[in-house]
Design brief:
Layout: H1 3-44, H2 63-71, E1 76-81, H3 95-111, E2 114-116, H4 145-161, E3 166-171, H5 177-191, E4 196-198, H6 205-216, H7 229-236, H8 245-251, E5 255-256, E6 259-260, H9 264-293
Parallel strand pairs: 1-2, 1-3, 3-4
Antiparallel strand pairs: 5-6
Helix pairs in contact: 3-7, 3-9, 4-5, 6-9, 7-9
C-alpha cells in the first residue's frame, strides 16, 4: 500500500471517529434527559410514606401532602399580606402578621378546600431614602410599590403553575390594598379569566369596630398611638406576648385608648369574636367571588 493511500485512509478514519464522538455527545444529553424525566415522574407519583400533617400552611406541609390535598379537591390558595411597621410603644412590629396567622388559618379551614401561602410580611411602609410614614420609626421595613407587586405576581404565578385554580389576596394593612388589586387585575388580564381574587372587605375595620361596640359595649378614644384595642384583642388570640401583656400589667399600662386589656381571658374572648367576624365575612365573599368566576 503506497503512502498516499495510507494517509487518505487515516484521514477518513479520523473524520469518522470525530463524527461518531460528536454524535455521542449530542445524544447523551437526550438520553440523560429521558432518564431524569422518568425518575422525576416516578418520584412525583410516589405514595406518601407517613401520615399527613393537619396544617393549612403551605410552608409547613411537604410537597406530597400538598399534592394529595390537591387531588382531594383543594384548589384555592390564600396569599395574606401584612407588614413590619411601628405600632406604638407596646405592640410588636409584626402586628398585622400575627393577626393574619389566626385569620388565614380560620378562613382556609372554613372554606374547606384552601391553603394559606406564607404571609408576605414585607410591604410598602413609606419612603426609604428620605423616610416617610412608618419608615420614620426604627425597625420598620418597607418595599417599593413595584417590588411589592412583583413579589405578589411571582408568588401567585408560582401557585398557578402547580395547578391551583383560584388565588385569593387579603391584606391587614391599608398600604397593601392597591398593590393587591393591581396584581389581581393584571394576572386576570394576562390569563384571560378571573381566577385571582382580591378581597378588600377583609380589611373592614369599621365592621370589626361595630361588632365590638354593639356586642360588648366597648368604645375607644384614641390616645394618639398607632394601636387600637380591637386589633390588640385579635392579636392576643394568637400571642399575648406580642402586645407585651405581662409587662404592661406589671407596669400599670394594661390599657389602650381608655380600654383595659386585663383580664387576659376577657380580651381574648373579645378578640376571638372579632376574629370570627372577619373569618365568616371573608369566607363568604371568597365563595361568592369564586362562584362568580365560574
Amino acid at each position: 500500500m503506497n503512502r498516499k493511500v495510507v494517509v487518505t485512509s487515516l484521514v477518513a478514519f479520523l473524520i469518522a471517529f470525530i463524527a461518531a464522538r460528536a454524535m455521542q455527545r449530542e445524544q447523551a444529553p437526550a438520553v440523560t434527559q429521558v432518564t431524569d424525566d422518568a425518575a422525576l415522574q416516578a418520584e412525583l407519583s410516589m405514595e406518601r410514606p407517613i401520615e399527613a400533617l393537619n396544617s393549612i400552611w403551605i410552608e409547613e406541609l411537604t410537597w406530597i401532602e400538598i399534592r394529595d390535598r390537591m387531588a382531594d379537591g383543594t384548589n384555592t390558595v390564600i396569599i395574606p399580606t401584612g407588614g413590619i411597621e411601628q405600632n406604638g410603644p407596646y405592640v410588636a412590629m409584626g402586628k398585622h402578621n400575627y393577626v393574619l396567622q389566626g385569620a388565614c388559618e380560620g378562613i382556609a379551614r372554613e372554606l374547606g378546600n384552601a391553603l394559606c401561602a406564607p404571609i408576605v410580611k414585607l410591604v410598602p411602609e413609606g419612603g426609604i431614602e428620605e423616610p416617610t410614614g412608618h419608615m420614620r420609626y426604627p425597625g420598620t421595613i418597607s418595599l417599593r410599590e413595584e417590588t411589592f407587586q412583583a413579589v405578589l405576581d411571582d408568588v401567585a404565578s408560582s401557585l398557578q403553575a402547580h395547578g391551583f385554580e383560584h388565588i385569593v389576596f387579603i391584606g391587614d394593612s391599608g398600604g397593601n390594598q392597591d398593590g393587591m388589586r393591581v396584581v389581581a387585575d393584571r394576572l386576570n388580564k394576562r390569563q384571560g379569566k378571573s381566577t385571582v381574587h382580591y378581597i378588600p372587605e377583609f380589611y373592614d375595620n369599621a365592621g370589626v369596630q361595630r361588632v365590638m361596640e354593639e356586642e360588648f359595649g366597648i368604645l375607644e378614644e384614641s390616645e394618639g398611638f398607632h394601636d387600637t384595642y380591637w386589633l390588640t384583642a385579635m392579636q392576643m388570640t394568637v400571642d399575648p406576648s406580642s402586645v407585651r401583656y405581662e409587662e404592661r400589667v406589671a407596669a400599670g399600662r394594661a390599657s389602650i385608648n381608655g380600654v383595659s386589656i386585663a383580664p387576659l381571658e376577657k380580651t381574648i374572648e373579645v378578640g376571638t369574636r372579632l376574629m370570627q367576624y372577619r373569618i365568616d365575612n371573608t369566607s363568604r365573599l371568597i365563595r361568592a367571588a369564586i362562584e362568580g368566576a365560574h
